[in-house]
Amino acid sequence: MKHNIYKSWAEPYKMKMVELLKMTNPVQRKKAMQEAGYNTFLLKSEDVYIDLLTDSGTSAMSDRQWAGMMMGDEAYAGSRNFYHLEETVKDIYGYKYLIPTHQGRGAENILSKILVKKGDIIPGNMYFTTTRLHQELAGGKFEDIIIDEAHDPDNEHPFKGNVDLNKLERLVKKYGAKKIPYISIATSVNMAGGQPISMKNLKELRSYTNKHGIRIIHDMTRVAENAYFIRQREKGYERCSIKEIVKEICKLTDGATMSAKKDALVNIGGFLAVNDREVFEEARNLVVVYEGLHTYGGLAGRDMEAMAIGIHESVSNDHIRARVGQVIYLGEKMMEFGIPIVKPIGGHGIFVDAKKFLPHIPQEEFPAQTLAAEIYLDSGVRTMERGVVSAGRKATGENYYPKLELVRFTIPRRVYTQAHMDVIAESAARVYERHEQIKGLKMIYEPKYLRFFQARFERLK
Ligand code: F0G
To answer: How close is the Cα of 460 to the center of ligand 1, in Å?
Structure first.
């Protein structure tokens, strides 16, 4: 707080254009939810009042970014916007080589194809859906090495994104370092509730992996939000800028996959960035197969320009303070209503503990999926399941049963106001008041991959 004379997290921007929202009534919402098979992913956006499905690709761009869109150089090869983006990634993050991709999973696909061989083990600080799937499709196996505290919604550890080095050591002993192509490290661990990793932990991991010759690949999707928590909570970083902390995090890793749709404030885009020339050469070759030429990677020139500008804006102290401030405002409001949420409050949304909210519904009946549907029915607020449906099935066909059964109220960046936050918290409180009457769901359609996107459900009687 010291860097700012104001106590409030008020937005460091004002509105120049607004998008009108459609209001719905309970009859319309009931019909919409039934048609969507009780899956909030299958709702039409038009039927949603406040959309907290995700913070991915839902940010409001700045006037500068929109101006940048007009400066798109739509050449097939060598667009000037690519060079601007390349220079920005080097300047802000410090990685040497850049491969643009259409979004994060495009980068994950290319990276996994290059680094993961059949039988490899990829340890990481909690899985992310698409990241793990690409590792598995390349023949690898993900192993969770996050600290135990991360799996406990009530544990107030300030850095629940930290790696448990003993868990890693056990894997290295069991499989040998040669079977571990890299450690997959996310900043602001999404599935744990937007929880940060500390610089201290990352440094310890770096020295351990240096000893064993293992790479660290950084899922830097929400790195600026992680940097904010380091600044607030970690000794020695109080006076550092977000920009400095972001740079230091990146420096401790060997490469990164980025979904620029989050931190970097664009509606589409991502990249793979590496320091290793050989990996880069291979990635540059593969990107033409899956994404597009290496100077556009599935993006228009204008998208790359907006991304370059967005990256600069994303590391501004004032931006990130307001961004996380708004999330914390919502979380505190929910806690006042007695709603069980993951603590500490994370960087990109509020994660409601569905096991506690609906203790009478067993995990087999999808409590988080149920709760997301109920919130929509109450108010038209759309949230996302992050529990047993998202976790999917193992290669053997068995369900993963994650400890965390959560509903994510994800806050898009620079989109909603404080009054919207009040509406959201009040809706959650209303549903909580009648939680005992809520019944679970039965899955009636299950796609093979990433089932949460398209699965359909029916209400249990
Ligand atoms: N890594 C993390 C930590 C993510 O949160 C996401 C996307 C990705 C990688 C994949 O990036 O969507 O651009 O292909 N998360 C979104 C979400 C979908 O809603 O949390 P992508």
So the answer is: 31
pLDDT tens sequence across 177-192: 999 999 999 999 999 9
- Look at residues 400, 371, 365 and name the one whose alpha carbon lies nearest to residue 136: 400
pLDDT at residue 1 tops 50? no
54 is a domain residue: no
Task: Give, for ligand 1, the residue of 51, 53, 56, 197 to mutate: max count of ligand atoms closer than 8 Å to Cβ.
Answer: 56
Chain mean pLDDT for the chain: 96
* Token pair in block for residue 292: 């597009």
pLDDT in tens, 44-61: 999 999 999 999 999 999
105 CA closest ligand 1 atom index: 14
Model confidence over 355-380: pLDDT tens digits? 999 999 999 999 999 999 999 999 99
Domain boundary among 298, 314, 330: 314
Q: Does the residue 348 lie in any domain?
A: yes
- Tell me the pLDDT tens digit for each residue of 265-320: 999 999 999 999 999 999 999 999 999 999 999 999 999 999 999 999 999 999 99
Supply the CATH number for residue 209's domain: 3.40.640.10
Residue 106 forms part of a structural domain = yes
Q: Classify each residue of 69-84 as buried b or exposed e, where b means 16 or more C-beta atoms within 10 Å of its C-beta.
A: beebbeeeeebebbeb
Domain boundary among 250, 285, 314: 314
Ligand 1 atom with the shortest distance to the CA of 348 = 20
For residue 190, the enclosing domain spans 63-314
Handedness of CA 356, 435, 368, 344 (dihedral sign): negative
Catalytic residues: 76, 128-129, 219, 262, 386, 452
Nearest CA to ligand 1 atom 5: 190
Best residue among 58, 189, 190 to mutate for probing ligand 1's pocket (most ligand atoms within 8 Å of CB) is 190
Count: domains in the chain: 2
- The answer to whether residues 129 and 220 belong to one domain is yes
Return the C-alpha torsion angle 372, 373, 377, 378, nearest 10: -30
Beta bridge partners of 189: 195
Where do we find the tokens 């400066």? 71
Question: Mapping DSSP to helix (H, G, I), strand (E, B) and coil, where does residue 437 land?
Answer: helix
Same domain, yes or no: 189 and 100 = yes
